[in-house]
Queue: 2 jobs
Job 1
Amino acid sequence: MKTTKKIKKVKKKKKLKGEMSKKEKAEYVKAAEQTRSHTCHWPGCKEQIPPAMWGCKPHWFKVPRKLRGPLWDAFRPGQEIDMNPSQAYLEAADKIQRWIKKYGED
Ligand SMILES: [Zn+2]
């Protein structure tokens, strides 16, 4: 009995470290709530979105898949709480902003 508990604890720890599977990560973001004021990262968009998300749905899907992928991979569940995203995440987010400046229209 005790062993099962231990395994569960380790699993939880792993999750907090951001070692979720892709499916778990998708579920985490999908279930994320509006815990504080946080707007879509598309320039000029005032849509309120959960801090675990990059942007509102219409804008997120305007971003090319090849730019969304790296951002998604670099996203660490919990970074929206401790406000400490990785360098990889920041770079991926920066690439998206540069793409929007060049090709995005609103
Ligand atoms: Zn938006």
Job 2
Amino acid sequence: MEQISESASDEAGLKPLPKLTVPISERAHRFRKCYFPHATQADWNDWHWQIKHSIDSFERLGEIIKLTENELSVQNYLKITPPLKITPYYASLLDPDDPLQPIRRSVVPVKPEYNYSPFEADDPLGEEKHRPVRAIVHRYPDRVLFLVSNWCSVSCRYCTRSRVIGNNKRYKLDLAVWEEGLAYIKANPNIRDVVISGGDPLTLPDLKLDWLLSRLRLIPHLEIVRIGTKIPVVLPQRITPSLLRILKRYHPLYMSIHFTHPDELTPEVSHVCKALADAGVPLGSQTVLLKDINDNVDTMRHLMQGLLKIRVRPYYLYQCDQILGSSHFRTPVAKGLEIIEGLRGFTSGYAVPTFVIDAPGGGGKVPLIPDYYQGRDENGVVLKNFQGLTYHYNDGLTLKEIAR
Ligand code: SF4
């Protein structure tokens, strides 16, 4: 493995920032040499360079992976939503020869995206009807989603906010829109928790992010701020010393990181997650359950245990939302329950995420739990443990008392 040192200066002119040694894995190194032969190691580790050189055309993608008929045919469609976009770093993880490789399936468009099922929608969670102002989705009493960017560095093919990504007309999330959002939060003292989302908020420049976080911190009733992002996974180069210094200023600040598959747990990702944790940011993971990508117990156990090793606490496992053209990704709900049953008791409790369905139309997250509670009999509560064995817990109530 090669190491590269990046020194950074503090944009506020304070103390010089520590050097951040960003590893470049052998795989990424070979990839850079092959597909970006003029890029230096410093280029590769510069997040602006990564964004500028993102793969956003089938021509370029076809130079990197052997595109199949199923993948190639998509370029004939007028509009690809969300647009094709893959950072060079993330592209280095794609298998050039295997169209069924999990990571490749999650970011390379295929024909079935154009088969819409009757229950699918471009806004499956009914977020539009819960938008009191343009930047805010307000669904729960004490917390809101603050949409601050319509941009992502990588487009996931199953994205719930496909309608937002790259849509500058309908979702122009500029400073004026942010001000509306800030004013809304300020005017609602019941809001104690804000999730900054989009798009991906960490694609914003440092200055803007700093400004936004500082404005949020001025709101006295706001207790915590969370950032929802996939950046540490698809563009780890973005986690610079300067960004870490900004984040440190606004605690308590949490981060929910979108992970899909254990192949994403590279030395680069491990490095930046540890750096974020060292900066005092509690990290949680969010994973969408996807057919033939991560829908088995072994893959999910590897992912969840791997996350704990890099100090990310598994948080949510989502049933795939009913976004337009997502049937080929969707598993039966029983599959998620089977996975949770295969984890609970067989690995650390910390490695077991909560399986949820975000209820279509805006009902919020509904947790689903396997049947460990089996009812009651004359001996008390009947419980089934992780091995399927039955136990009783006598909580002092008789059936007669309960019937009363
Ligand atoms: S990172 Fe999140 S918001 Fe961005 S494309 Fe993927 S799922 Fe959508």
